[in-house]
Amino acid sequence: MPSGLKSTEEMNKKFGEILLSGLEELQNEDFKKFKFFLSNDCLMMRVHNLDRIDLATCMKKQLPCPSFMNKFIEILKKMNLNETAKKYKEQKEEVLKKLKKENEKKPTKRKNQAQTRKPSDGKNSVNPQLTKKDSLKLNDESKKNCGAKRTKATTEEKPESKKRKLSEVSHQKTEPETGREDGPQTMPVVMKVLKVKEIFEYETKEKTKTMFHATVANEHEFIRVKVLNIDVKEYFNQKNVIEISEGFWKSGFLEVNKSSKVIDLGANREMEVPQNIIRKASQTPKIQSLLKLKNKKERIYVDGVYEINKKTETDKCTIFVVKDNTGTIKVVTFGKWAKIKCDERDKLRLTCFELCVWDVKDEIQLKSVTHSYVKVIKAKK
Length: 381
What we know:
By secondary structure, this protein is an alpha+beta fold. Helices cover about 40% and strands about 25% of the residues. Strands 1, 2, 3, 4, 5, 6, 7, 8 and 9 form a 9-stranded mixed beta sheet that branches.
């Protein structure tokens, strides 16, 4: 089993035990309040009749790890149980530290194994990222056993159990922002590549750099990735299964930089991503729903396709009024994106645009930032 997947399962198990312990510590009145806040956040419904064990089980199923643990701590703070929240936050961090230490030993071992092999192309140096996948390949016997297990499971599974599984998947919270705090990536993630966008240049104070955006997903969630190190571009192929570690979480994105590691898990690694997650990963947010986020304190970034209703060019920027069937919103582009050639009725495919409020008019709008990307879709004539 790949180290990232094993670590995630171990983290899910440990956090589940901590969650149950925390729920059991709550007095009856506090437990009722906890269930109220949980349902009030629209994360889970029909929780009022659940006992502590059932509630812990449902939270683990419907909220991907570590979101259920983060949500537990967040609600404790809302209930002014700050000491209890601090206690379980420390327990969470202890688990993460322990798993991180265990995981740090494994890449070193694999790297040494990779370096002992001779390169197949005759070059003098060996790239560990290209050879790590060899050690993860299944042998013929394992393939047969896995195939037999999948066949048996498929033939014995009843229609009722299939419906129940689909129902559980449909209620999972799959947005990439689910409960992750900004900071270094503590645990590797094993994901399937859904979408890869073009490499483009962006400006920094020091110099011009290159990057591309990608969307990856697993059985529980999708993640938007900023790939700031284009040397790993070869691993980001559609439907490829990869392991990402030592990245950086920032505003819901996972940033892959020079110190990050990306491993191709090879053709033998299969992963089925539920259709509801694939659909959500490619959805364009409705403008009406964006306008309702006006008073949100956290930073929100939007990806989507909108039709140009009006275009106004100025010396410093270009202002678009874009529309969908629910309303209109302004899109403000700076730098190279202010100079793109497009006309009314064309569509803009926006990536990583910040939702913000212009204080002068208290007007909500989308604006381009450092890592924004725009593609014009010409209207059919």
